[in-house]
Each structure stands twice: as C-alpha cells, then as structure tokens.
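Practice problem: predict the structure.
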Amino acid sequence: MTMFPTEAVAGPKAAIQVEPERATPLGDTCFIESQFPISKMSKESYTERKAVAGQTLTGLGKWWGRKPLVLCRATILGLLLPATDDPQMDREVFLRLMTMEDDGMLRRKSANIPAKELFRRLPPSERAEWFEKGSTEEAAKLKRGLEKEDREELQRRVFLSAVPDDERSRQWSAEHFPPQEGRRQGQPLMEVAVASYLNFVVANGVVVLPDFVPHGTRADRQQRVQRLFERAFPGRGIRFVDAISAHWVGGGPHCATLNQP
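Answer:
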C-alpha cells in the first residue's frame, strides 16, 4: 500500500493525515526532478535575504557563499519526496510541508499592508470597489463603512497576489520570451542542464569534477579537460563524478558543497 500526506495540521506536534492508494510513484523519480515552484522559491529567497541581520544564523557568523536556508530546505525536501502520477497532489504536499500554500502564507503574515501599498497593487479596475473616489498612490483612503471581514479579504487578496503560483515544466513556450531572429512564436524551448566543468571542488589532494561522458560528451574531450586541471592543480588527483541530477536543478559539485575557491 502506498501512502502519501494529504493534509498538514498546524501546531508544534503537527501530524500529517495520509490517504492510501491515491497516487503511484514514478519509479525512482523525486519531486524536484519533475517540477519545482520556481516563482515562489525566488520570492521566499529574496525575502530571506532582505531580512539582513534578521536572517537565521547570521548572528553566528557570515559567509559569502551561504545559500538561503529556505532554498536549502526546499531542495532537500524536493529530493526526499517521490514524484507520482498525480503532479497536482505532489505540489500541494510540497507547498504544505514548506508552509508555502495560501493558508500557510497567511499564517506567516505578520502585519497589515498599508493602504498606499494596497492601492498600488490592486488592478485599476478594482480600486473603486475598495477606495474612496480620488484616491491615488500617494493619498489612498479606504472606503468608509468597510466591514472587518471586507478589510481582511482585501488584505488576503493583495497579499496572495504578491506570491502567485506558477506552473513550470521542461518545455516552455516561446511566447514567454521576447521575439528574436530565428525564433518563431509558439516554438517550444527545451530546458537544458546547467552543465560546466568549472563547477568543480578542490579538496585535500584531489579535485572533483562533474563527469559528462555518460551523458554524451566525447571521452577524448574530457581527457583534455583532465590534462588542463592536472596542470592547474599539480600534485592533486583528478576525479570525475556523475552530477547530472544537480546540474538539472542549476547546481553541481561546487554548488552542492559550497566549496570556497
């Protein structure tokens, strides 16, 4: 019997209800190999960085190569969760565990959005519904008589509009990119791995490089790379490891270890 989490319960001893036989794993494929909420993670990472001294662990020391902790948590979770034949459920589970679904985002909301910001973020067609006539971004006044529930709904609507959900796949439409010579509207663009020999790790007595021969690189070309690194790092062994999974999510041996050059 295969069981997957379907609903998270808030609290210090949070429990996750499970529902049997709802989805089937896609072999050894993990969540991050099938999808990833790029837009949400970008905003979460930016928010964490903007916290400056309020960032977790900053008081213990600073390091130029440290990645946002929210991104690290999401990456680890994405590698642990299996991908199933129900991608929508996979996404819901991932976002709940990260407290990044709508309810989780609202629980983390710590202050009301000022009227000026509410006015600025609302589409022009909706401003008259919530604001007094003549309101501007510099002098925005909410309508008199708005009930508490109405004000809360406005806060909710605007707050969640700042963190839109996004659907990403391995194939994007060209309509999302500016037209360029040689590219036709509607022509699919295929995502490729961020693969480079420069994403290497220097360790005690060894240099670890990504191995691309299993994925189509000619062996003689990789041997040339090996000779270059042997000249650059005399006295160190040169080792190649298959890191293609990390390259598909924008990383590699150096990124994964945060190795300092």
